[in-house]
Amino acid sequence: MITSWRRGSIDYGVKRIMGIINMTPDSFSDKVRYSGKSAVERIFRMADEGADIIDVGGESTRPGSTPVTPAEETSRITDVIRIAAPSLSIPISVDTMHPETALAALDAGAEMINDVSGLRNENMMRIVASAGVPVVIMHMHGMPRTMQENTMQGDAVEQISDFFDSVSQAAESAGIKRDKIILDPGIGFGKTFPQNVEIIQRLGTLRKGYPLLLGTSMKSFLAYAYPNIPTEEAGLLSAAECARNGADILRVHDVEGTVRMIRVQRS
C-alpha cells in the first residue's frame, strides 16, 4: 500500500511513525505541549528521530475538552506550519475537524488532513477531494466534551467496521482517491477501556484495503491495559502491539522510542 502526497509518497512495506505536535494550552500534559519556536524545533527534532509524518493540532480533543473557534485553532498552528513545511522532506498533517482550519493549514504548507470527526462535515469532504491530499478518517463516538459520558454500546469493533465501509465509500464517491484514504478506529474516542483493548486485539477485522492508523500514546486506557507500568513505557508497549496486529501508522509523542521499538520488532 502506498499513500502519495504532493512531494512524494509513503510506502507501508514498513511501519510508519506520525509524530504529534500539540499546540493547545489545555493539553493533558505539559510534557507534550508546544508553541511557537518550541513547536518548530520539535518538528525538526521529530523528523531527525525518524518520523514519517508530523501531525500538528491546535484544538484539544481529550475527553471533556472545551471546543475553540476555528479562528483560534487556526491562529495557533499556521505560522508554525508555514515556517517548518518548506524545509521538511516529510509531510505535515493538520489535526482538525474544522474545514476552515484545514483550508488555512493547507495554504500554509500542510500536506495531509487528520479529521478526528470522520469527515462528518461535507465541506471537509469537498476540501480534501479538491486539494487531492491524503486524509485520516477517524471514528469518534459523540464529541470530545461528552464522549466518555456516553460510550459505545455493544460490539464496538463491528460498529467501527461498518463505519469504515460507509465512510470510505462516501469519500471515494465524493472524489477522494483511494490511495489518499487512511482509516483510524479512534482509540479513546467514546470507547470504554475494554473496548479500546479489544479494538487493538481485533485490528484484522478493521482492515479494509486502506492504511490503518492507531494512536494510543498517552491515552488513559493504558493504565487499564498495562497496570503498574509508567504511561510512557505503556505507550511503547501498546504501539508495539498495534504494529504486530496490523497497524500501518503509529501516531505517537515519543518518536525516538517508537522508532527503536519498531527496529527491535523487525529483528
Any overview of this molecule?
The chain contains 9 helices and 10 strands. By secondary structure, it is of the alpha/beta class. The protein has helices spanning 36-49, 70-84, 99-108, 122-131, 156-173, 193-201, 222-225, 231-245, 255-266, and strands spanning 2-5, 8-11, 16-22, 53-57, 92-95, 112-115, 135-138, 181-184, 213-214, 249-252. It has an 8-stranded parallel beta sheet with strand order 8-7-6-5-4-3-10-9. Helix 1 (36-49) crosses helix 2 (70-84) and helix 8 (231-245) crosses helix 9. The chain is globular, with a radius of gyration of 17 Å. Helix 5 (156-173) links the parallel strand 7 (135-138) and strand 8. 40% of the residues lie in helices and 16% in strands. The longest helix is centred in the middle third of the chain and has 18 residues, at 156-173.
List the helices and strands and how they pair.
Layout: E1 2-5, E2 8-11, E3 16-22, H1 36-49, E4 53-57, H2 70-84, E5 92-95, H3 99-108, E6 112-115, H4 122-131, E7 135-138, H5 156-173, E8 181-184, H6 193-201, E9 213-214, H7 222-225, H8 231-245, E10 249-252, H9 255-266
Parallel strand pairs: 3-4, 3-10, 4-5, 5-6, 6-7, 7-8, 9-10
Antiparallel strand pairs: 1-2
Helix pairs in contact: 1-2, 2-3, 3-4, 8-9
Summarize this, please?
40% of the residues lie in helices and 16% in strands. The chain is an alpha/beta fold.
